[in-house]
Each structure stands twice: as structure tokens, then as C-alpha cells.
Amino acid sequence: MEQTVETINHIIRTRRAIFPPNYIQKEIPQEVLDNILENAHYAPTHKRTEPWRFIVFRGQEKLQHLASFFMERYRNNTPAESFSQARYEAAGEKILKSACVIAINVELHPNDLPEWEETAAVACAVQNMWLTATAYGIGSYWSSPAVLKELGEYLELPEGQKCLGLYYLGYHDGVEPPMRRNGKIEDKITWA
């Protein structure tokens, strides 16, 4: 049992956001992605609604398609005099540097639960994915772009679902990001 506690403590405490510029060109095996997603499915969920819904973009063609959404959005929302080819290309760069991008969506059950509970369950699912990716040596991070409503429309989410962001994954160059500088836990606890 002690080994299990040490292992989970290590994974939790070394989990970091590792961004696409640090990713290397290496495909994530299907069985690894399956395990990451399966562990997401073990997140806590009130009334067993299991509100997490994921759309996985993998492979150059699918990633290019998703990147094109952001690139074309930039083109369509930028006045011609302000348009920059470099910014246009940068709009899809994070996606194209990733081995996999997962759209994180929530399926709401407004007659059963408040939205915040369903969102919290999805966040727990993402944490499970993040910890699993860390254990595999895969970098990842969750981004919530300002265009979530438009992204949901692009993804053609059914009624009752909302997009909560994109989860980027990729093997990385091995450069560890700096250790987190969390404040003291004692400052955040009141014993009643």
C-alpha cells in the first residue's frame, strides 16, 4: 500500500501544464489514449450522469481540420488592414504541434443537477486524464479559448452539450517546467 501512496503522491505533485511548443513529433499509441480516456470515465459523478463527452482529434488530417477552424476564425474576424499572415498561421499552431487534441464537452441535465455539478464532474475527468498522461510521460494542458460557443457550433454539439475547452497532448522534449510554487496549505484550511 505504501508504494501506491508514494506513486500517486509523486504523480499528483509533479503534474504540470506542458504546452505544445515543447511537444515532439511522436504519435501516442492508441492503447495509451484508450487508457487515458478510460481513466477519465472513473471520475466522480453525482446521480451517475457521467456528463463528460470527448471528441478526439488525432492524425494530421483531423488536426489540420481543427486548426483550420481557428485560422479561418482569425481571418474572418480580422479587418484586412490588421491581418497578419504570421498570426493566421499561429492561430492553428498549438493544434498542429500536438499529437492529439481532445475537445472537452459537458452534457447537461438541468432537470436533475445544476450546471456547476456537471462541470465539476468533467473537471474531475480531465484531472484523471492529466494524471494518467503524466504517468505515461505525456505532456498536456487544458485550454479554454474565448470562442467556446463558436467551437461548440463547429463541433456540432447536440442540444444540451457545451464545450469547456481543448485538452492538448504530446510527448515532450523532456524539459521539465519549473516546480509549482503553491502557497502553504495551512493558509487555506480552517479546522472547525
UniProtKB/TrEMBL annotation:
Gene3D superfamilies: NADH Oxidase. The keyword Hydrolase does not apply. Residues 13-171 form the Nitroreductase domain. It comes from the Bacteria. GO terms for molecular function: oxidoreductase activity. Keywords: Flavoprotein, FMN, NAD, NADP, Oxidoreductase. Its cofactor is FMN. PANTHER family: NAD(P)H NITROREDUCTASE YDJA-RELATED. Belongs to the nitroreductase family. This is Nitroreductase. It comes from Dyadobacter jiangsuensis. The lineage of its organism: Bacteria, Pseudomonadati, Bacteroidota, Cytophagia, Cytophagales.
